[in-house]
Design goal:
The complex is a heterodimer of chains A (150) and B (503). With 150 residues, chain A is mostly helical. In chain A, 75% of the residues lie in helices and 3% in strands. Chain A has a two-stranded antiparallel sheet with strand order 1-2. In chain A, a hairpin with a 2-residue loop joins strand 1 and strand 2. Chain B has a two-stranded antiparallel ribbon with strand order 1-2. In chain B, strand 1 and strand 2 form a beta hairpin. The chains are: A mainly alpha (150), B mainly alpha (503). At the A-B interface, helix 1, strand 2, helix 2, helix 4 and helix 5 of A face helix 8, helix 10, helix 19, helix 20 and helix 21 of B.
Chain lengths: 150, 503
């Protein structure tokens, strides 16, 4: 199994390089007239150097990190992330009421509720209470499909 | 305006029914947040930030500050009754608080933690007044090089005092500073790292990032959380006896001093003073064996220290414009959203906010004492709300709260992505607070750095020829060198151990 730290180091090195290159391109200016790229260029280079040092440490003490593997709950994690992204994509399209109803029915299920009657009751309750609460606070929630009805 | 004149002005503002209401609302929400595990003051403040847009800056900040110190009060309830800290600063309270509850002394434990918090909070506000004013007057003489050096010192303190690895904290600070460069360049207005998105042109929003890193990632971390078991004990004798008070008063006074002074340091946070206070109390106690088995000093000292620390943390933010921890970084961001920049000029330009916040702390501490002593039964009932019910509610507030800022679903995406990043980083042992603080301070640091270069016509000597800047930079360098050396020694020792075990 690949140590998750390996992924992180690869990401940090790539981030350091790409930020440095991009900042250089937008112009680092000169020392008496610093350009918009100077500060990010310095940060990108520093990140790259620190990541290189981290690689050095990582290879030397690889065995130590192997003991730090953590138990992950991928199934629930991915399901929850999927629902959150679903909410972000569809809230404007189908509206607050429908998106909240669909998303939170499944989120209650992930949270540990088994009885669908309870799940739907709770979802409807929090949906309407939050709708009233946020509308009272002056938040304009998207109507989505309801726009076609009204 | 002198201190007493200012304080009277602050009270005049705070005792206005509207502001009093928001102060009360803040401390109630704060206590609630402190009592409920799974959501901390950072996430709560981020969620509620959009709802403060309609308020005056003073009301908004007073409410948000109330959430912060209210959470410090509430955190002890969960530690004592459930053995799970409501927020990080109450971790150490679990040791003796829970043991006291198991022995049927939950009442005195809760009582002394509320009284200690009140005394610590009040003494710290008094100290805050006397330190913040001369400090902000001194900071008026600072120019861009001094501010840049001060920010360097803050960053090095944050990495030095980080709970995990210092090296990882430095990486988090750099990533935070890089995130702060997204959007328009603060000097030329040139767009950077915005990938053609108009949302990113104004920079990455503080609220989506804070909600993602501290709200969503917390939910992801707790996805398999088992329901809590609340100790079934009758809460009686909430007011400590004279004997308990005699035992605790020293711990409370020492906790106030430790908490306040460590709270002043960037990165000092609420956690470190509690550990120092606990260790000190154990060391000077005549019965150190009692610690861990229900010693009342083990509850009084740390609980006082965390409240004193949370108040002390306001000093660098109000006087210098340096938020020392992520909660105050949110407050700093909230002020920015209302068009107010915290720092040396705050007291002169916005006395209603400066003195209002200070006066509200006196009032808020009294409100919290009333909320936490006679109404403790109510908070125990709140504790019984199952996590499986709380989790969807927290998520809904995060999603709608983030969407409501600008009615922009892209900000919800940003929040989810940062939630995932936060989750992965926490799993790998990285601390998120340095990243958030660096992200907020980043644009100020860059502006001061570049302005210094412009003033000096490109000479880096400006940072060392000006005495204050030089002192601050030397202090920062010393911290980096000492922490770097300690990391190097630790790594070398570990590698040696592995090599020996391989042989």
């Amino acid at each position: 199994m690949v140590n998750p730290n390996t992924f992180l180091i690869v990401i940090l090195v790539s981030l350091g390089i790409s930020i440095s290159i991009y900042s250089y391109k937008i112009g680092i200016g000169s020392i008496n007239n610093p350009g918009p790229g100077l500060f990010p260029f310095l940060l990108g280079s520093l990140l790259f150097l620190l990541s290189l040092y981290k690689i050095n440490i990582f290879f030397k003490k690889k065995r130590l990190d192997e003991t730090t593997h953590v138990r992950l709950f991928f199934k629930k994690l991915f399901a929850l992330l999927f629902l959150l992204f679903f909410y972000a994509i569809f809230i404007d399209l189908i509206g607050y009421i429908f998106t909240t109803f669909i998303t939170f029915s499944f989120i209650f299920r992930i949270a540990g509720y088994k009885n669908w009657f309870k799940i739907i009751t709770y979802t409807i309750c929090i949906m309407f209470i939050s709708y009233l609460g946020f509308t009272y606070l002056g938040v304009r929630l998207p109507q989505g499909l309801l726009k076609m009805v009204y | 305006m002198d201190i007493f004149g200012g304080l009277l002005f602050g009270f005049k503002n705070v005792l206005h029914p509207d502001i009093l209401f928001y102060c009360f609302l803040g401390v109630v929400i704060g206590t609630l947040i402190g009592v409920l595990p799974g959501i901390g003051p950072i996430a709560a403040m981020s969620i509620l930030l959009p709802t403060t847009f309609g308020l005056s800056p003073a009301s908004a900040i007073i409410m948000l500050a109330g959430i912060y110190y209210g959470a410090m009060y509430g955190g002890s309830t969960t530690s004592i009754l459930v053995n799970i800290p409501g927020e990080a600063a109450s971790v150490i309270t679990c040791l003796d608080g829970y043991q006291m509850a198991k022995k049927g002394r939950a009442g005195p434990a809760l009582g002394i933690s509320a009284i200690g918090s009140f005394i610590g909070g009040t003494l710290s506000v008094i100290a805050l007044m006397f330190i913040a004013i001369p400090l902000s007057n001194a900071a008026l003489k600072f120019g861009p090089p001094e501010f840049f050096s001060l920010m360097c010192l803050s960053m090095s303190l944050i990495s030095y005092l980080a709970r995990g690895s210092t090296f990882n904290a430095i990486i988090m600070i750099i990533i935070g500073l890089i995130l702060g460069t997204v959007g328009m360049d603060p000097i030329t207005g040139f767009p950077r790292f915005y990938f053609g998105s108009s949302t990113l042109l104004d920079g990455i929003g503080l609220i989506p990032v804070a909600m993602g890193l501290f709200g969503i990632s917390e939910i992801l971390m707790n996805i398999e959380l088992k329901e809590r078991t609340i100790l079934e004990t009758k809460i009686k004798n909430i007011f400590p006896t004279l004997k308990d008070m005699k035992r605790s008063i020293g711990a409370i006074l020492r906790g106030s001093v430790i908490g306040f002074f460590i709270g002043l340091l960037p990165g000092g946070g609420g956690v470190i003073p509690t550990f120092i206070s606990y260790t000190l109390e154990k060391r000077i106690s005549k019965n150190p064996n009692e610690f861990g088995n229900g010693a009342i000093e083990g509850v009084a000292g740390p609980e006082t220290a965390n409240n004193a620390g949370s108040t002390g943390a306001f000093v660098p933010m109000l006087a210098l414009g340096i938020p020392p921890n992520p909660v105050l970084a949110i407050l700093f961001g909230a002020l920015l959203m209302h068009g107010v920049v915290a720092g040396p000029l705050l007291m002169q330009r916005y006395p209603d906010i400066f003195w209002g916040v200070i006066a509200s702390m006196y009032v808020g501490n009294i409100m919290l004492l009333i909320l936490n002593l006679p109404l403790i039964g109510l908070w125990v009932k709140v504790l019984k709300i199952p996590y499986r019910m709380l989790m969807p509610l927290i998520l809904l507030f995060c999603l709608v709260g983030c969407y409501a800022i600008n009615n922009n679903p892209i900000e919800v995406f940003i929040m989810i992505i940062f939630g995932l990043i936060g989750y992965c980083l926490r799993r790998l042992g990285y601390e998120l607070a340095p990243m958030l603080i660096a992200m907020i301070l980043g644009p100020f640091m860059e502006t001061n750095f570049r302005n210094s270069l412009l003033i000096s016509d490109g000479s880096l000597k400006i940072f060392i020829t000006r005495p204050i800047s030089a002192i601050l930079l030397i202090a920062a360098a010393c911290l980096f060198v000492t922490s770097g050396l300690s990391v190097y020694k630790k790594t070398k020792k570990k590698i040696k151990e592995v090599v020996i075990s391989d042989d």
